[in-house]
TrEMBL record:
CDD domains in the cross-refs: GT_2_WfgS_like
Cross-referenced InterPro entries: Glyco_trans_2-like, Glycosyltransf_2, Nucleotide-diphossugar_trans
Pfam families: Glycos_transf_2
All copies of domain Glycosyltransferase 2-like, residue ranges: 14-131
Lineage: Bacteria, Pseudomonadati, Pseudomonadota, Betaproteobacteria, Burkholderiales
Cross-referenced SUPFAM superfamilies: Nucleotide-diphospho-sugar transferases
Protein name listed in UniProt: Glycosyltransferase 2-like domain-containing protein
Organism: Burkholderia ubonensis
């Protein structure tokens, strides 16, 4: 259920979806955003030249539902930078073309930013869904831990939102040299800037697991190498590697306990990817 709340003076939110040949899933992604009925939303879809059903799916939505830009790019980070160059919201987020927002997510986030002006970055818990949109797992996080975030990216990307004021150049906020870790690099820069983070303890987004996404082999090779470089750049000298692993271990134990406690309250699994997505 989505709680009733005061929706006056909610901040404008800009969401960018980088798109390339996700015709099987992008319809559910777009529906999950538009069905939020958020009063101050700019939704940008940045397509890099899809040659599948993507554009046909997008054209089936009512005119002016979103801003669609079709142009070649140099990868996901470049597509995001191109999209955010057109952003005019006070709050930023991006949603991959195969993931979804859950019902009420934007109003939850908008109210939180409005009511907590001291907070710069927020994120929530994750629903993991399969190709058909059925739940296969959950990430229920114990809360924010800056020391852990400097060693490992535990933030569910599709639940991440940040204030536009953190970014001096929206068109260059993502490192185009990175394939997997560009969102973690952004978070590490925010930490270095002194940004204030908050975790919202509810499910905000759905991460889809399917055969066509970036492969596990790529993640093991390229992704780990990128993360190691970022870890050395941002965590070196702050505390020992052992201290980092210890804080990570404590966080994982709390994460496991939270998920076990939450699992006991789940009566059934829902399929959310094909229509309105529920928290």
């Amino acid at each position: 259920m989505v709680e009733a709340g005061n929706d006056e003076e909610l901040p404008a939110i800009t969401i960018v979806t980088p798109s390339l040949n996700q015709g099987a899933y992008i319809g559910a992604t777009v529906t999950s955003v538009l069905s939020q009925e958020y009063p101050a939303l700019q939704y940008i879809i940045q397509d890099g030249g899809s040659n599948d059903a993507t554009l046909d799916v997008l054209r089936a939505f009512p005119a002016n539902s979103f801003e669609l830009f079709c142009e070649k790019d140099a990868g996901q980070a470049d597509a995001l930078n191109r999209g955010f160059a057109r952003a005019n919201g006070a709050i930023y987020a991006y949603l991959n073309a195969d993931d979804i927002l859950l019902e009420g997510a934007l109003k939850t986030v908008g109210r939180f930013f409005r009511d907590h002006p001291e907070v710069d970055v927020v994120y929530g818990n994750r629903l993991v869904i399969d190709e058909g949109g059925c739940e296969v797992g959950r990430w229920v996080l114990p809360g924010h831990a800056a020391s852990v975030l400097r060693h490992v990216d535990y933030v569910p990307q599709e639940t991440l939102f940040w204030r536009a004021t953190l970014v001096s150049t929206p068109a260059g906020q993502f490192d185009a040299k990175l394939q997997f870790a560009m969102d973690w690099a952004l978070l590490l820069r925010f930490l270095d800037q002194g940004a204030r983070f908050a975790h919202i303890p509810r499910l905000l987004g759905g991460f889809r697991v399917h055969a066509d996404q970036k492969t596990q082999a790529q993640m093991v090779s390229t992704g780990r190498a990128e993360m190691a470089r970022l870890r050395n750049r941002y965590a070196a000298g702050r505390f020992s590697r052992l201290a980092g692993f210890c804080s990570h271990g404590v966080f994982l134990a709390r994460h496991w306990w939270m998920e076990r406690r939450h699992a006991g309250s789940i009566r059934g699994r829902e399929c959310v990817g094909r229509g309105r997505s529920k928290v």
